[in-house]
Amino acid sequence: MAPTLPTDRVERSLAVSVTSRWKAASVWSVLAAGVLAAATARADDSPWAVGSNWMYLRAGYAHSGADGAGQGGGGYGVGFRHFLKPSRVSDWSVLGIKPLGFLPWTLFKSWSIGGFVEYDVLGRYGTASEIEVPAAIELTRHIRWKSAAKPYVTFGVGPFFRKLYNTGDDFSRVRTSGFIATGFDAPVASHQMLGFDIRMARVMSENKPENPVFGAGQLEASHWSMKLTYAIAY
Predict the structure, then answer these.
(1) Cα–Cα dist 201/216, whole Å
(2) Lowest model confidence (mean pLDDT) among 35-49, 70-84, 141-155, 184-198
């Protein structure tokens, strides 16, 4: 039998959602501060060198901002990054001619390209849950501060698989969505880093027909995640 909710489900959901988001943000902020405190600079062996590869694991909190969404849940993901070789625009050549030789620009300096797959439980009501599996490619600009922890900004796009499960009227669909992310990475041992990642995606979150547990949703909503990260560089 499908889970049922009282008529004031959406209002209570919004109130609980705001409270749970503040609590989650507080907890993950403390954990992020712990990662920073544990970080130690390693000037002798930079994981940010051109050609470096990073394998990632990350886990933490995920939440949907759609109308009627449940409290946020847990999520985890795996992925990789590859640091690109800078390209000087003035060196580009066509048939031995350098048509842009007058431009002093350098592209892809401190940039990486990567891909990630994640599994996020965006919300629950009893045994009913909203699940999302994004698989995306991304470009990341790493900001090479002199501190041990180095921040970054990420832009990505890819298919987002979303599923309502155990609601009595389950469905699933895939939509292509874009996202932005920011965070930091800090070395804690040779070729090993800890970090913190926050990302926001705009995802089609409409439930058609209206779901008996999660309601109608909305055409587009923000999906958030805050995760601790662990990376191995090689």
Answers:
(1) 19
(2) 35-49
Chain centroid, CA 131 distance in Å = 15
CA-to-CA dists, residue 224 to 93, 171, 179, 227, angstroms: 43, 21, 10, 10
Three-state secondary-structure class, residue 119: strand
Q: Is 16 helix (H, G, I), strand (E, B) or coil?
A: helix
State the Cα–Cα distance between residues 210 and 158, nearest whole angstrom. Answer: 26
Is the CB of residue 158 less than 8 Å from the CB of residue 174? no
pLDDT tens for each residue of 161-197: 999 999 999 989 999 999 999 999 999 999 999 999 9
Domains in the chain, start-ordered, CATH in brackets?
Answer: 9-233 (2.40.160.20)
CA 163, distance to chain mean position in Å, is 18
Q: Average pLDDT in the 15-38 region?
A: 49
The pTM assigned to this predicted structure is: 0.74
Query: What count of other Cβ atoms lies within 10 Å of the Cβ of residue 80?
Result: 14
pLDDT at residue 71 in the model: 84
What is the phi-psi region of residue 149: left when phi exceeds 0, alpha when psi lies from -120 to 50, beta otherwise? Answer: beta
Q: Give tens-digit pLDDT for 115-125.
A: 999 999 999 99
**Tokens (6 digits) for 3:** 């889970």
